[in-house]
Every structure is written in structure tokens, then in C-alpha cells.
Amino acid sequence: MKNSFKFKKEIVNEELFNNNIALPHSEEYPDEEIIFSVKNFQFYYDNGAKHALKDINLEIFKRKVTAFIGPSGCGKSTLLRCFNRMNDLIDGNKKEGEILYKGTPIDTLNTIQLRSKVGMVFQQPNPFPMSIYNNITYGPKCQGLRNKKELDKIVYQSLNDVGLYEEVKDQITHSGTSLSGGQQQRLCIARCIAMSPDIILMDEPTSALDPIATLKIEELIRKLKEKYTIIIVTHNMQQAARISDYTAFFMLGELVEFNKTEEFFAHPKNKKSEDYITGKFS
Ligand SMILES: Nc1ncnc2c1ncn2[C@@H]1O[C@H](COP(=O)(O)OP(=O)(O)OP(=O)(O)O)[C@@H](O)[C@H]1O
Ligand SMILES: [Mg+2]
Known about the structure:
Elements: H1 10-17, E1 34-45, E2 50-61, E3 65-69, H2 76-83, E4 94-101, E5 104-105, H3 111-117, E6 118-121, H4 132-142, H5 148-161, H6 165-168, H7 181-193, E7 199-203, H8 211-224, E8 229-233, H9 237-243, E9 246-251, E10 254-260, H10 261-266, H11 271-277
Parallel strand pairs: 3-8, 3-9, 6-7, 7-8
Antiparallel strand pairs: 1-2, 1-4, 4-5, 9-10
Bound molecules: adenosine-5'-triphosphate (ATP) and magnesium ion.
Magnesium ion is lined by residues 76-77, 233.
């Protein structure tokens, strides 16, 4: 599968596909391995008129769940979309500083390769208008995988990983859009997993779901972190407290506080964090 890609930089490719690559440990949290480092990062929309992210410095740790929280418009989604360079698609964007993925600046990477390693799940479940099977095999087929047995295995494994296999095994040829909202969101997560990502970015993945479907996704996130690194944007502070290991709190484009989630909620270091979690503003 590796050879079916056409990369601009062969060296970067080798490095990134080598899962044994030694990651640096965080100075502040020495047990943690750093998968993404955000360094002095600025992001602007509208040709610089809108300064959406201001001097962000942040580390994302391997196989941990990091929650991005903060009031509406503070830049959570903007930062999330920077990790797989989705914002590059927006006209008039400008960025300064850098984001390193396993030590390599993401701007030097081929975006197709980067996005295969950094998958994304959106607020509204968005299965493709095609069968459950084809939703999951879409990415691997785009990468050149044609072997039916291998594709079947990926479909089984991905659906099983998101707890959907038993629910949909008899309707695998039915349209993904025929599933319930919660099932559709799990299908979207399965589609993401089918690409064997390192990181899954989730932008308010449960805000369109009912409480039971939400709990299923939360359980799933807890399970998925055994294999994947997860960054989740959420408006729901209870959710951040329930599922994340680390919390990053943003306001007006600035990172106000980053801490272990338990610490963040029990002993916020910053007055603004305390005001936010005690509901003094939203
Ligand atoms: N495509 C865009 N063009 C111009 N400005 C944008 C664009 N997308 C976002 N912004 C602005 O950038 C700032 C950060 O937006 P962003 O969507 O990242 O916030 P957010 O924290 O995710 O908010 P919410 O919780 O409401 O989703 C906001 O002021 C927003 O209006
Ligand atoms: Mg948002």
C-alpha cells in the first residue's frame, strides 16, 4: 500500500510511516510522547484582517484524548482544522509559526499523506451517499488497495472497532445515510479508522446526537485512545471532564490554560478558566 502513494518527499514519507519512530517526551509531562507540537502559531482569515489564533504553544500527546474547550468563536475549530491543513483550502488564510507532526513541519508534508494520518470527524454525521461497505472502503481504494479480501477485512475491523458490526452486518450494502444519526457518526469514525490514522480530530462529534448515542460515542472514544490520539472540540464541559486526559481552554484566539483534565477542573490555574468552568460566562 505504501508504494501506491506519490509523495513529494520520500524521506518524510519513510519517517512518517515508520510507527517505531522515537517521539520526544514532553518536558512538563515526562511520561507523555509528543505527536504534535504547535509553536508560536498564528492564524489569520480574510488576508490578515481576522487574527483567529494568537501565539499558540501546545503539545498533543500520543494515545491521549485532548479536549479543546472555550466560548464560541475562540478558535477551537480553526486550530483543529490546522492539524490536517484543512484551513489551507480557505482563500485569504495566513499562518505564522509552525505545527510539527512527529517532529516534521506539517507544511512540508504532502496533504494527502497528512490527511490519511490525521483523520477528521465532523459535527454533523456526513456518510457518503453510498453503501456502508463503500463508505469504509472509499479511502483505502483511493490509496490503491484493490484486494477484496483485504478490503473486507478492513470493513469488518473498522465496523467492529466502533461497535457497529453486529448492528449493521446484515445491511452492509445499504446506504450509509439510512442509519440513525448515532450510527452514522460511528460509521464516519469507522471510515476514518479504515485509513489507519495516527490521530483523529473530532469537532463537536456528539452535538447533533441524542444522549444515548452521545454516551456510545463517548465510550467509543475512551476505547479508541488505546490505538489512536484524539483531539476533540466540545462545548460540553462534562463531556470534556468525562473523556479527556488533557484540556486546552481557549478565549479570543488565545490558549489560556492547558492542563491534565482532572487538575484543570479541580484546580484551574487561571481566573478566566475558573470563571468559565463555574459558568460565569459561556
Ligand atoms: N472561514 C472563515 N473566514 C473568516 N473568519 C472565520 C472563518 N472561520 C472562522 N472565522 C472566525 O474565526 C474565529 C474563530 O472561529 P472558530 O470557528 O475557530 O471558533 P470556535 O471556537 O470553533 O467557535 P464555535 O464554538 O462557535 O464553533 C471566529 O471569530 C470566526 O468568526
Ligand atoms: Mg467550532
